[in-house]
Amino acid sequence: MSRIVLATRNAGKIAELHRILDGFEVVGLGEYPDAPEVPETESTFAGNALLKARAIAAHTGLPAVADDSGLCVDALNGMPGVLSARWSGRLGDATGDKDRANLDLVLDQLADVAPDRRGAHFACAAALVLPDGTERVVEGRMHGRLVDAPRGTGGFGYDPIFVPEGETRTAAELAPQEKDAISHRGKAFRALAEIIDGLLTGGRA
Amino acid sequence: MSRIVLATRNAGKIAELHRILDGFEVVGLGEYPDAPEVPETESTFAGNALLKARAIAAHTGLPAVADDSGLCVDALNGMPGVLSARWSGRLGDATGDKDRANLDLVLDQLADVAPDRRGAHFACAAALVLPDGTERVVEGRMHGRLVDAPRGTGGFGYDPIFVPEGETRTAAELAPQEKDAISHRGKAFRALAEIIDGLLTGGRA
């Protein structure tokens, strides 16, 4: 079975990606404590995913998968976007719950925005880089809208304030398998899984 | 001399606008303590300026001038924009220095952004609404870039982190008259002053 390194230390992401990429031996960066920290300096999700996958493939000599994802809020011109994880900056660091500080900040910023202008989508770029230099990147989206106050304890990040299209529950109120089926990351990683299968096993599946 | 009401309680803005609109008897909302608070719910500076000027013209029966302005950061897709004054939300309220919390948050959000991607501009929409329903709105911009750390004690808002094109000093290091000559608000209010002069005095100036 092919070993693939997932270029993340985020426990929530690792759990999600394990469920989706279950036909491979997937390991996280916990097994590579010396792996480099890669600053996400690009202005696009795809750019950042490729940056990370390249660095981890070079470090491990193994096929590396990385994603970059975030929440794109219509009334914020698509931000927080690539800055989703650090939207509240040091103010959020000081609160001890960065996810909560980030989503509270988005709610504050939208406080005076009309209900019909609360559209948003999650976006995910998933990149694969092989030691021979082969690169692939795919993107997935989940459209929906933001609610006024967080609900639910599942998921992570902005899930508690995001209701997917066709749902009344927030993404944090969905079961993990329900979320995977419609999520930006689920879509991107299923598309990447097909590519991985073709490249690494010659289309055995 | 025609009396005009400036629809703002912001001391920094009042000082700036007094200097520019010096051919008229300009009064701020301090003289109209019962004037309505107008939520800035529009998605554009022009929309918010008109909202405020309409409300104050209706309340006072006098020509009303209002502006809405903000900082538009390239790497934030033009945000904070119309949300400039409340960018840090309740996290900023808790710090006791909202201006500082707002600019610190922008600096944090740009922490990993490359030096050549720190472009930004200030934008200002200035609106005039007369009691007879006549409406005018003009816009001004000041282009420049953001520095890494605040400098200077003049101005207000994001001035300490913004260096105008052709300058090495931040907007907070410029003398008030220097800033007026190049600022978004200066440009917008000089353009509006000409319109006011034409409408209210028949082009006497």
Automatic annotation (TrEMBL), chains A, B:
Its Gene Ontology molecular function terms? dITP diphosphatase activity; ITP diphosphatase activity; metal ion binding; nucleotide binding; ribonucleoside triphosphate phosphatase activity; XTP diphosphatase activity
The residues that hold Mg(2+) are: D68
Function, as annotated, reads:
Pyrophosphatase that catalyzes the hydrolysis of nucleoside triphosphates to their monophosphate derivatives, with a high preference for the non-canonical purine nucleotides XTP (xanthosine triphosphate), dITP (deoxyinosine triphosphate) and ITP. Seems to function as a house-cleaning enzyme that removes non-canonical purine nucleotides from the nucleotide pool, thus preventing their incorporation into DNA/RNA and avoiding chromosomal lesions.
Give the InterPro entries listed for this entry. Answer: dITP/XTP_pyrophosphatase (IPR020922), ITPase-like_fam (IPR029001), RdgB/HAM1 (IPR002637)
UniProt organism field:
Thermomonospora cellulosilytica
Tell me the protein family, please.
Belongs to the HAM1 NTPase family.
Keywords attached to this Swiss-Prot or TrEMBL record, sorted alphabetically, are:
Hydrolase, Magnesium, Metal-binding, Nucleotide metabolism, Nucleotide-binding
Active site, renumbered: D68 (proton acceptor)
Q: Name the cofactor(s).
A: Mg(2+)
CDD domains noted in UniProt: HAM1
* Statement: the UniProt record of this protein carries the keyword Hydrolase: yes
Q: Which SUPFAM superfamilies match?
A: ITPase-like
Q: What is the lineage of its organism?
A: Bacteria, Bacillati, Actinomycetota, Actinomycetes, Streptosporangiales
- Any one biological process term the GO annotation gives: nucleotide metabolic process
What Enzyme Commission number(s) appear in the record? 3.6.1.66
Q: What is this protein called?
A: dITP/XTP pyrophosphatase
Q: Which domain of life is it from?
A: Bacteria
Which EC class does it fall in?
hydrolase
Q: Name one GO cellular component term.
A: cytosol
Assembly and interaction partners = Homodimer.
**Keyword Magnesium set for record:** yes
Q: Which reaction does it catalyse?
A: ITP + H2O = IMP + diphosphate + H(+); dITP + H2O = dIMP + diphosphate + H(+); XTP + H2O = XMP + diphosphate + H(+)
Query: For substrate, which residues are the binding ones?
Result: T8, R9, N10, A11, G12, K13, S69, F156, G157, Y158, D159, K179, H184, R185
